Every structure is written in C-alpha cells, then in structure tokens.
C-alpha cells in the first residue's frame, strides 16, 4: 500500500497538468472569443488549446462559464492597470491615457467589447464583484483628474463608461479610413473643461502655418512662440509615448 508521500508525489503532477490544461484553455478561449465573440463553439476552443472537449467541459461545464472566466481575467488586468495609476503624477494625462489604452484593447477583442458595451457589462459577464472593482478603480482616476482640473466637474462615472463603450464602436467604424485613436481623442476632448466654452472647428482647411496632431490628425493652432505643438492633448501624447516604447530598437 503506498504511503502518504507516494500519494502526494503522484497527485502533484496531476494537479500541475490540470493547471496547465486550464491555463491553455483560458488562453485559447481568449483568442477565440476575441476574434469571434461568444458564438465560437467549445469544440473549436478545445482544438485551439490542444485538448479534448471532455477536458474543457471538466474545467468549464458551459460556454457561459468559460466566457465568464475569460472576461474576469481581462477585467482584472484592466483593474490592476488602473490601480497602478492611482497615485501617479499628472492625473489628467494618466486618466486620458488609461481610457485610450482600454479602448485600444477592446477594439480588437470582441469579448471585451461586448462586456464594455453594456452599462453593467462586468456584472453581466464577469465574476461577482469585478464590476464594482472596475468602477471603483476607474472612479478613483476620474476624481483625481477632476481635482487636478483636467476633467469637467459635471462628468460622472456613468458618462465615462458610456463614452468608453461608444469609443470602441466608433473606432471600429473608422478603422478602415481614419487614423487610429482619433474618435477616442475627440471623445476625450469632450471631457476637458475647455470643451464647455470652446469647440474646435475641424471643417475649415488648415492654414499654411497650422500643423496637425501626429496621432489623430486634429488641426493644431499655430504656436506664437517656442516650438510648435505636436499633439492635441494628453491622450494623444500618451499614445505616441506608448508607440515609441513598443517600437523595436534599431541596431
């Protein structure tokens, strides 16, 4: 009769295999749901993960349970990012940069797009408590940006959630013929205090001395002194910084 030590030795590899299978299923489901949304069959996910359909069903008895696990994982990574910015300098720039980052991720992920498109998408699709944690983390960024004077005081969390969902949809609509991030940048402009009293006229042709934002193409007023502006605001400046950081180093 095997002793306790041999039973533990036999059980540990099985548990490790189960954990690896679960992670492979989650990763395959993330790719499948991102590409095709919730309509993808579980058999396709099993094939992507390199496991049998029975292994998928042992870990996730329904496709809804698997979708919930994937959305929970995505929301938790977004919440972690928001919390990491909670005490950062330049709260306005961090807030707008976070919105750009979330929209950019969701735009190419059907599953995340579905969850963000609903006012309580996290509560509908993710594990209990995730929606509240997401709203709490986003609300903290919003309040700090408002305290710094970078976001209109009359904006609330529901406004931001609605704009975020709308940006995902409009970015998809303009993806073929517009610069990436343009619709989100325009939405961010609506949140700025200056948007209450000043509306940018984008229909007139730029003058000879007028430049355009390097990210979204918005016309920029000519600089009276010093170097001309390169970006229309903090959100586009943050997006350009992320692109430079992600670009492969030459040499």
TrEMBL record:
Signal sequence region: none
InterPro entries: Homeodomain-like_sf, HTH-type_TetR-like_transc_reg, HTH_TetR, Tet_transcr_reg_TetR-rel_C_sf, TetR_SbtR-like_C
Domain HTH tetR-type: 19-78
Residue range(s) of DNA binding per entry: 41-60
Cell membrane as UniProt keyword: no
Entry keyword set: DNA-binding, Transcription, Transcription regulation
Domain of life the protein comes from: Bacteria
Name of the molecule in the record: TetR/AcrR family transcriptional regulator
Native source organism of the sequence: Actinomadura violacea
Source species taxonomy: Bacteria, Bacillati, Actinomycetota, Actinomycetes, Streptosporangiales
